[in-house]
From TrEMBL:
One of the Pfam families matching this protein, by short name: TonB_dep_Rec_b-barrel
Compartments, record wording: Cell outer membrane
Motif (TonB C-terminal box): 648-665
Organism (species): Rhodobacter maris
The protein, known as: Hemoglobin/transferrin/lactoferrin receptor protein
Amino acid sequence: MRHAPRLRAALLVCTALTLPTSSAWAEALDTPLYLGQIVIGYAEDGTPIFAGENATHLGEQDLRGAGSTTDLDGLLRQQTSVFTQKDPGNPGVSVNIRGFEGSGRVAMSVDGVPQTYRLTGHAAQGYVFVDENLLAGVDITRGPVTALGGAGYAGAADFRTLEAGDVLKEGASQGGMLRLEQTDNGHATSGMAAAAMRTNRFDLLFAASRHTGDDYADGDGTTVANTYEDISSQLLKVGYDLSETTRITFSLMHYETDFFATSYGQELVNDIAKLGFRYAPGSALVDLRANLYTGRTNTEWVSGSGSYVGREMSTRTTGLDLTNTSQIALGAWTLTSANGLEASQDRLGGETGGVNPTTGKATRAALFSENVFTQGKWEITAGLRASSYSLDGEASLGTIDISDQSLDPKLTVAYQLTDWVQPYVTLSRGMRAPTLQETMLGGTHPGGGVGMIANPALEPETEQGYEIGFNLTREGLFTQGDSLTGRVNYYHMDVENYVVSQYMTNAWGQSGYAFANIAGTSRTEGVEIELTYDHPEFDLGLSYTHNDSHLPSQMPGLGAGQYLPDDTLALRLSRDFMEDRLTLGAQYTYVSGGLFTDTYTTTPYQKDESYELVDLFASYDLTENAVLYAKVTNVFDEVYAPWLSASATENGQGRTFHIGTTLRF
């Protein structure tokens, strides 16, 4: 994790304005544009520097380096104000930011393609299905996003998959990569093979991954049922430089898994296709990127004792986006401006959906502009997002046809107080459109009894809030060669028309449980601390979150609880030996109690059951392109139910030994 000072970013903008030829732009045609962020420069190690965003960029070393002691869910839970809704049987990832999740409050995507598959039940109301073996990084933005990917006011999480450059050795035109891992708890095996090539104009990547494993045991040695793994996936990416200034790309991802969750055995497939275009002629005014994409997530209920064996549900998302980034000198000020549009549509499909609709259409569109002004010690980020949505479909007693618009601004003012402290304040507003699953809820709970009804008058949630804090970058803090980087901040978010499930009478005179807007203001606030200390002899990372939520409770059974723990702390220490070839380290995680909602109740209470986890890790560079690693997670066999678990009786994994390797050739 890197938090570079924005003053340095401003200098990089000025440097970019003086690029002498278009060849420098052509060399960077395959660099990513991170969602919700203007990349205005790159650090010496290639890490992007973001402007005006509270963001965390997780890269290769975070995902699979020596210190990556856990799975993707666990890694996300170690990030400031980030959590996940954990269902041990479901391989999907549901990201929670600042206590908000589900139904699009956090905009989740894979390579920028929105992931909008949702299921109303005893689980999260939205998952991302992507193979962590195929990931190159995860980019997390906290709070409303006014630029690309800003559909959720709580933040955004984009899961980026491998590129050819992630596989090839430096300077190589062709090559491959192998990843293998074995664990003893559940006897899980994971493997990935990738091949890539690059010529002057053409590059190609193909990767395939497989995960298998049995049910794991908790800290008491008790087997936790239905926690097995069965995942396979493939990834194809092709890029071609039409000229020194123009590039086209195509990617195709296929993911399939079998799992048991929400009382049924399920077979799920997630397919994503994306066509990209970039035009960067070397002009500071034009860096144009456009994408067309389509994706479909489909699941079938294939086993179980209930009446919904044979249920099928699918969501197909089709859309496009267009972004141009310009760099302009305005007297003493420098402006970096990202302007564009995005539009997408979801179509539901399937049969025997129960309370979930299997027909309906949701359309979203937005125009956006985010502008970073820098002058001396000042940096001002001004963003504006104009959004609209429409939902239509047939509910039990009539047609759903609703639409709305929103104009959402965001302003960040930062000042470089000293060469290593930069205070800032952010004011923002965001909107979340209701989903088809919320609006068109219907049917009865399996087994009968509780009636569910649609709400044709459901309104969007709107958020207004602020964030105040400071960025830190200090070199030579205690000794020559050390550095401290990070961010400390306080956030406050007020939500109007917050949506929860409750008993009501809808506009058609039906009475039952529906998703409805809560009158008044719902609030959450908290403190975030994210620090990294690099010393010539060791590295230390700290992530701390304090969350104080005043949100209404989501009823378990129509969604899942969202409250974050009151306090979470992740502390990581590592040290290199043998000329940096051997790395040894440890990870400590503390999760406190907090507000909690029991199944089928809407009244939260304070549940003071905390837990602590300790992991150990080691890696050894056999050669420059061969790494062997070993890990021990949950060293002390802690017996615990992960916070935001689908069931308080499903404990987390006990002590687990991992051994693996990554080879490039």
